[in-house]
Amino acid sequence: MVMKNPKLARVAQGARLEFVPLQVLVPVVATLIALGIGLLIIAATGASVLEAIEAFWDGMAGSDFNIGASINRAISLALVGLGFIFASRANLTNVGGEGQIAMGGMFATAAALHGAGGLPLGLAFIVPLAVGTVAGAVWGGLAGFLKAARGTNEVISTLLLSFIALPLVYWSVESFHLLRKPISDVSSLPESAEIPDTTKLPLLFPDNGSPLHIGLLIAAIAVVVVWLVLKHSTLGLRLRAVGLNTTASRRAGMRTSFYVILAMTVSGGLGGLGGAIMILGQQFYLTSDFSSGYGFDGLVVGLLSRGSAVGVVIGALLFGFLRSGSINMEISAHVPSAVVLICQGLIVIVIAGSAILTNRKVTR
Amino acid sequence: MALLELSGLTKRFGAFIALDDISLLIERGEVHCLLGENGAGKSTLCNLVFGVHRPDGGTMTLGGEPFDPRGPAEALQRGVVMVHQHFSLVPTMSVAENLMLGRASAVLKPQDIMVRMEQLAAEYGLEIDPEARIDELSVGERQRVEIIKCLLGDPQLLVLDEPTAVLQPDEIDALLAICRQVALRGKSVILVTHKLGEISRVADRTTVLRQGRIIETVAMDGADIRSLVRSMVGRDVQSAGSVLAAAVDVEGKTPAKPSDAAGPVSPGEAVLQISDLVYRDPHGVPRLDGLSLTVGTGEIVGIAGVEGNGQTELGLILAGLASPSAGAIVVGGTPVAGCTPQEITDAGVGIVPEDRHAVACIRELSVAENLFLGAIGKFSRFGLLDKSARRKAAEAMMRDFDVRASSPDVSMASLSGGNQQKAVLARELSLDPLVFLLAAQPTRGLDVGAIEAVYNRIRAARDDGLGVLLISSELEELMAVSDRIAVIYRGKLVGELAAGSFSREAIGAMMSGHAHV
Q1: Pair B291, B495: CB distance under 8 Å
Q2: Which residue of A has its CA nearest to B412?
Q3: What is the C-alpha separation between B275 and B157, in angstroms, rounded?
Q4: Would you say residue A108 has pLDDT above 80?
Q5: Reported pTM
Q6: Theoretical Cys-Cys bridge with B208: which of A336, B55, B215, B275, CB 3.0 to 4.6 Å?
Q7: Residue B285 above 60 pLDDT?
Q8: B-chain residues near A237 (CB < 8 A)
Q9: Which domain does A137 fall in, by range?
C-alpha cells in the first residue's frame, strides 16, 4: 500500500542508500575545496603560502591559549546557531542573531557594571548572563509577536531589529549617562568601563593560561537541551507541526501564535546568551562593534547544520577555529583576514550548492 | 494508423514497478479513458507520454515516428499536451496573460491570443473572459483556461489527468462535451478517471489498469460497467448497490433505498443545534445567511448543494477555524459558536475537514504523529515523548480502522488518499467524549474500496448513537448514506427531504434555487 506511491517509495529508498553518507561527505569536501581556493588566493596576493598556513594553524591551535580562544569563539557561534535551528523547527527563519547578540551583550554589560558585581555565590556572573538572555529573548520574541499578531515576515523583522540593536549599542557606549566610561585621558575610546572581576566567567583551566571559560559548559548544556527539545519532546513536535501546517495544528487544538512567539523568544534568548558570554567571557568591556559578524556567522552555522544540534557544534567549531586562524594569519603573515571570510563564503556556497545537487539526485 | 503506439512500456521507481509491460494503441479521433484505482499507474502512464518521466523499457511511436520525449517541451513540440491535476497558472495574472506565458516570443501579441481564443470559443464552446484574473475564477473555469492553453497550439493528443475530480456536476458535463468536440476534430484524448459514469458517457474505448498492468481494453459500445469495476478493483465490491453507484457515479442507477442504510431511523434528542447562523467573509459578503439546522443522536443528516453556497464556511465554523458573525451553535448543551478548536473538541465534536491536506493532517509528519496530533501530550513523561507507547497505540488504532501502512512511523504523505482519510477518521472517531461528527466531502479523491470503508465507518458511528452531519457535493453519496437531506442554497437551507423521499430531481431543483417544498 505504501509502495503504491512511487514518489515516496523512491525517496525512502534514496534516503537509505545515498543521502546519509552524502550528508557527511558534502560538507567535508566543500570545506576542503574552499580552503584550496583560499590557498590559491593567498598565493595570488604574493604572500608566502607556507608562512600563511603556518600562521593560520598557529592561530587556530598553536597553543593552549589559542585553542581556548578558538573554542570560546565557537561557544557564541554555537548558541546563535542553536537559536537558529530552534526557530527553524517552527519553520521560522531568525536572521537577527547579530541584533540579539548585541542586545544580550549590552544588557549583560549594564548588569555587570551596575549592581551584579557585588553579588555572592557566582550570582555576580549568573545574573548578567540571565539579563543578557532575557534581552535577546525580548528582541527575538518581538519578531515572533509581530509574526503572530500581524503576519509580519520574521526574516524582515529580525533583520530590521538588528539594524536597530546595533546603533543602540553604539549609542550606549557613546553616551556618558549610559555605559560609556568616564574620560581619563585623551585616548579614551567610546567604550564601556571594564566589568568587575567577579562578573567575569570563571576559567575552566586557570592554571595553564587557557582562556577557555565555563561558557563551554553552558553551551554544552544548551546543545543537549535543544537536541532533546527538538527531537524528543512534545514541545518540539508541536513546534514542528505548527511550522509545517498552521491550520492543521490549530484544528488539532494547538495555540499556534503562542508557539510562534515562543520559538522566536527562545531563539533570541540563545543569541542574547551568546552575546552576554562574549562580554563576560572574553571581551570584558562593551565596544560599539563587539558583535562584529558573530550573528551572521552563527546564522550560517545554523543553516549548514540542517537543523541538527550536533551539526551546530561541528559548524561552530569550524568557524570558531577559522576565525582564530585568520586573525593570526593577518597579524603574523600579513595575509588579509578577508581571505578567510572569502573561504567561509565559499564553504557556504559550495555546501548549499551541493545540497541542491544531492537533493535532485534523490528526488529525480 | 494509430496516433500513439505504446509497446512494452515499463517504468520503475526504485524497487517499485509503476508500469509493467504496457502496450496500447491510441487511435486518431478517439476518447480513450484510463480507468484504475489510486496507484494503478494511470498518472505515471500520462507522465511518460508527456515526457515528465522517461520509461525504463519499451518504445513509443507518435504518428508513425519514434517518440521518446526527454521532457515536456519536446512532447509539446510533437503536439502532445497535458492538463495536470494541479493547475500551472499564475493566480495574480489575467487569463490572456497566462495564455501568453511560455509561448510568447520577445514581443507580446495580445491581439493574436484574443483572436485564437475567439476561434476556440466558437469551435469548442470554451468561453472565458480574457481579462479575468485567475484567482477570481472558479476551479472549473481555471481548468477551462488550462485546456485553452493546451489547444492554442493545435495539438494532436490531449492528455487529461483526473480532470473531473475537482469539478461540479454541470462543469463535468461541459468538460466531457469538450472532449467529444476535440475528438470529433480528429485529435485524440486520453482521459484519466475513476468515475465510471463519465466513462460510459464519453469514452470510445477504455483501458483498465491495475497495479501497473493493463487488465483489459474494451470498446464502450455494449461494455458491461460491472465487469469494468471488477477488473479495476480486482474483486466484486461487496455492497455493490448503493455504494458502488455513489462511488463510481453510474448514471441512471436508482437511488439508494434507506433500507440499505440499515440503521436506527428514529433519531433521538438533538445533539447539534444551529440557529440563525450568519457568516460574513472579510469583504462583508454573507456566506451563511441565517442557517438553522438540528441533528439528532443516531442520525446522519446530509447537506446537499452546489459548491460555494456556504458549505465550506459551515465546515470551518463547526471546526472552530472561523468565527460566525451571528447565531448560535450548541453541541450536547454546550454553546460552541466562536470557540477555539480545542474547546469544540472538548465538547465532543469530531471533524473530518473538507481539505484533507491543508486541515486534516500534516503530510510531513508520521502516521502515528497524525493520529495523535490533538493529543501530543498524551504520550509523554516530563515533556519528553514516549514514542514506543505512542507507536503501540497507533498500531492498535491502525488495526481497528484498517489504515494500511508498513509502519506507524512512515510519513502521512506516503499513504494513499484512502488510508489518509481512514487515519483521519480513526483520530476523530477515537475522541472521548464524542457526540457529533462532521464529515465534509469525506470521500473526495478516494477510490472505490476506500469510499466503501468511509461509508461503513460513518454508518457505524451513527449506529453508535452519534449525530453525523455529512456535507458532500456528490448527490449519490448523500442519497446512499443520509437519513435526511437538507439542501443549502446561498447560505440558507432551502428544503429538506426525509429518507424514502429522496429524489435527484427534487434535490437538484432546490440546489439550483428553485425550491418548492
Answers
A1: no
A2: A2
A3: 53
A4: yes
A5: 0.73
A6: B215
A7: yes
A8: 369, 376, 385
A9: 71-334
